[in-house]
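My current task is to audit a protein record that another person submitted. Thanks in advance; the entry in question is below:
***
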Amino acid sequence: MVLHAETPILPASPLRRLPVVAIVGRPNAGKSTLFNRLLGEQRAIVDEQPGVTRDRNIATARLGDREVLLVDTGGVDDRPASDVSKAIQEQTWLAAEEADVVVALFDGREGRNPLDGELVRRLRALGKPVIYVANKLDDPKLDAAIADFFALGIEEIVPVSAAHGRGLDILAERLEAALSALAIDAAHEDRGGQSEAIAVAIVGRPNVGKSSLLNTIVGYERAIVNHQPGTTRDAIDTMVERGGRHYLLIDTAGIRRRARVREIVERASVVRAFRAVDRAHVVLLLLDALEGMTDQDARLASYVLERGRPLALVFNKWDAVPPEGRDQNRYRRLLAEEYPTLANFPVAFISAHTGEGVESLFPLVRLLHAGSQKQPPTSKLNACLKTATRARPAPAVGGRPLRFYYVAQTGTAPPTLTVFTNYPENVPAPYQRYLEAQFRQAFGWFGVPVRLKFRARPRRGSGQQMPASR
């Protein structure tokens, strides 16, 4: 691997201190429907089955002139029936504690429930602004049903229908008033230099340890961990800092073969995991060291590369591999033999359970991100092209030689090179891969997809111009 010390790490997307609004309530009160309505898109999974939202789902939403971080949570339950249900409760209350303002959602159609009283009691103990909302009131004639909720000692309840959008303007006004009273300045609050972050998507098959890795990095159970595959249904965003650099970690639902994805909930989670790849600057593909690389893993890697994202292969559960099998070179050799297209991508060996090797992922992420932003001088790109084509001339096209005149970088993230040739549509795929490998090796694009585009050289007098040199 070639390291270029002079290569700067360019700023990633700026992150500001946004006020946090958490939506809490009983299962099936309509929290995810309200979340999606306020967000303006289908971000949270909505299903008739209670308890579908297992982890917190977070997104930026605009309420009037103000941007907020909107947090959807699992339902509040005083008698969780399983370990997963208990973990959902912990996640819900952690979200409420982290929020600046809480929206407490009642099921207005069903009426007051003993759980609502417990919810109000616990929220009061937090000592922060709470806006109480009665949902599923599609018709103003139903608003009288909220009278029973005043017995809980609530001064105001906002009647809404999240499904139909009724009453959301009033809810937005109450949220704006509560946030203004807190005087949170999203544009100027000092967060200790938090002005940029690298977004990192953690993807992989179910139960390879994605959420365990996230929890190990963060230091507490940010994501629910359970031995049941697919426990993480939504993508979860978490900010961490290492060495003065900020990273936005995106944990995703386990991605299965499409034939095995049966439930609507699982299908939506897989789509969301793919979207997480699109949001990321760098992708960590987590693999099970006990199973090795599988065809499904390779397909996931191919998707990441198709999307132009830098990729690292991370073998997890390294601590569970018997001592006689802990040969990293053997793993790399098998990877090159069985999946040659992935042979030159960086490989890491970690244990999310013990923490072994976890911290080494951050320098790797920085290197991959820097590589995706790299812009070598045009003169060096053309010197590389000249050397590569002389060392291995391209095959002839219909008996006529295939010539390459010039190359220029026309994009970053991923690095995109436009190569001018006499027959752009006839460059054989193997030769394209050869040129890509030469550029990758020459400029240290290790683990970074390099895209080549072939164009005909502009004719003299055509008015077309070649890309400018750097």
Notes: The two ends are 25 Å apart (CA to CA). The longest strand covers residues 404-411. The chain has a mean pLDDT of 80. The chain has three domains: 20-182, 198-373, 378-456.
